[in-house]
Design brief:
0% of the residues lie in helices and 46% in strands. With 177 residues, the chain is mainly β. The strands form 5 sheets. The chain has a 3-stranded antiparallel sheet, with no helix packed on it. The N and C termini lie far apart (99 Å). 3% of the residues are buried.
């Protein structure tokens, strides 16, 4: 007769990890009667080391910083993400739905003040002639100017800021033929 008593680890019953399992032993004499286990040179059980894998949940990174607003003027969205650090195994809690690069996103609306940043263009440069026809005394050339994104204040544009803050669709030309 054999029966499993359970798994015992230093006095505590655990559901996973390293431990020991015990199997009860029964000792019979020549007449097939149950007798004390000491007569069979046994303690009454077999002790065996065992490992039951513990479940591990899906592990994601901390949230990234919020992105800039998708629109420099008006309503847009901001995004932040987490990425997969470790897949679940042994029955651990699954991950939320991830995209093709193993990330999950949070998207919130945002609103940018349309008058906060403006494009400011400097005057056009002198013509730089690139192709001259000496016979007709004329040619082709290019004129350029610097265009900057500026913080707009009550007193007008005050300091240069990163270009992404201005609306790219409103950016004046920086060169012309």
């Amino acid at each position: 007769m054999e029966g499993q008593l359970g798994m015992k680890v230093q006095g505590d019953i655990k559901e996973c990890g390293q431990g020991y399992r015990y199997q009860a032993m029964v000792c019979y004499d020549q007449d097939n009667r149950i007798v004390e286990t000491s007569r069979c040179n046994s303690h009454g059980y077999i002790e065996e080391a065992c490992i039951i894998p513990c479940p591990s949940d899906c592990k994601l990174s901390e949230w990234s910083n919020w992105s800039r607003c998708s629109k420099s003027c008006g309503s847009g969205v901001k995004v932040r993400s987490k990425w997969l650090r470790e897949k679940p195994y042994n029955g651990g809690r699954p991950c939320p739905k991830l995209d093709h690069v193993n990330q999950v996103y949070e998207v919130v609306p945002c609103l940018s003040d349309c008058g906060q940043y403006v494009w400011v263009a400097e005057p056009w440069s002198v013509w730089k002639v690139s192709n001259v026809d000496l016979k007709d005394n004329c040619g082709e050339g290019v004129q350029t100017r610097k265009v900057r994104c500026m913080l707009n204040t009550i007193d007008g544009p005050s300091e240069q800021v990163e270009d992404y803050l201005c609306d790219p669709e409103e950016m004046p030309l920086g060169a012309r033929n």
